[in-house]
Amino acid sequence: MEIKHVNTPTDGYFEAIEIKAQAGLLTYTWANPQKLVIEHTEVNPAFSGRGVGNALVMAAVAYARAQNIKIHPVCPFAKMLFKKDESIRDVLFKERLVVG
User: Fold this and answer.
1) pTM greater than 0.90
2) Count of other CB atoms within 10 angstroms of residue 17
3) Strand 21-32 relative to strand 35-43, pairing
4) pLDDT tens-digit series, residues 26-45
5) How many CA atoms lie within 13 A of 29 on its CB side?
């Protein structure tokens, strides 16, 4: 499986390609230059159960680590992975409580 990454100043996506078909897509937007928001992760039903969604989120995690940025997962699937896998929480955006 090949994962392609397209990034623009406002948004981007990671696309999983297998056998010249789109196996899955993870879309994100930029909240600011240091935080990307995972909006949606979708897997083509023909590729269900093959770890495509995991691979897409892990590609986003690798990108965040390389760019020294944080991820705010809004997508339920991505949220679930961050909750389940402690090893990727280093790139998880943590909101700070501001009192005042």
Assistant:
1) yes
2) 13
3) antiparallel
4) 999 999 999 999 999 999 99
5) 5
Locate the domains of the chain by residue range.
2-91
What CATH number has the domain spanning 2-91?
3.40.630.30
Longest dimension (CA), the chain: 55
What's the start-to-end Cα distance of the chain, in Å? 49
Cα 67 to Cα 30, 33, 84: the distances in Å are 13, 10, 23
19, 49, 96 from 70: Cα distances, Å: 32, 28, 14
Q: Which residues of the chain have pLDDT under 70?
A: 96-100
**DSSP label of 11:** E
